[in-house]
Amino acid sequence: MVAPHVPPGPRTPVARGPGIARGLAATGAATVLVLATMPTAGAHAAGDTEENTLTIAVSQQVDSFSPFLAQLLLTTSIHRLTYDYLTNYAPETNKPIEGLAESWEHSDDGRTWTFDIREGEHWSDGEPLTAEDVAWTYTTMMDDEAAATANGNFVDNFAEVTAPDDTTVEITLDEPQSTMLALDIPIVPKHVWEDVDDFAEFNNDEFPVVGSGPFVLTDHEPNRSITLEANSQHWRGPPNFDRLVFRYYDDQDAAVEALRKGEVSFVEGLTPAQADALDGEANITVNNATGKRFEGFTINPGAETQDGVEFGDGHPALRDKTLRQAIMFAIDKDEIVETVYGGYAEAAEGYIPARYEDYTWEPEGDDRIDFDPDAAETMLDEAGYEMGDDGVRESPDGEPLELRMHVHNDDPARVAIGKLMAEWLGDIGIGIDNRTVDPGVLSDALHAGEYDLIFTGWTVNPDPDIVLGIHTCDALPTEPGTMRGDAYFCDEEYDELYEKQLAEFDDPDRRASHIRDMQAILYEEAVVNVLTYPNAIEAYRSDQIADIQVQPDPGGNIWGQDGYWSWWSAEPASEHSGAGPPGWAIAAVSAAVVLVVAGTAALVWRRRAATVGDRE
Amino acid sequence: MTGAATVGRADTAARRSRVLRYVGGRLLTAVVSLFAVMVTSFFLFRILPGDPVRAMTTGREVTVEQQAELRRQFGLDQPLWQQFLDYCAGLARFDFGLSYQYRVPVSELIAEAIGPTVLLAGTGTLVAALIGVTLGIRAGWRHGSVGDRANTAVALFLFSVPSFWLGLLFIVVLASGTGWLPGLFPTGGMATPGVDGVVAVTVDVGHHLVLPVATMVAVVYAQYLMIMRSSMLDETGADYLTTARAKGLRDALVLRRHAVPNALLPTVTLIFLNLGRVVGGVILIETVFSWPGLGSLFYSGLQVPDLPLVQALFVVFASAVIIMNLLADLVYPLLDPRVRT
Question: Model ipTM?
Answer without folding.
Answer: 0.83
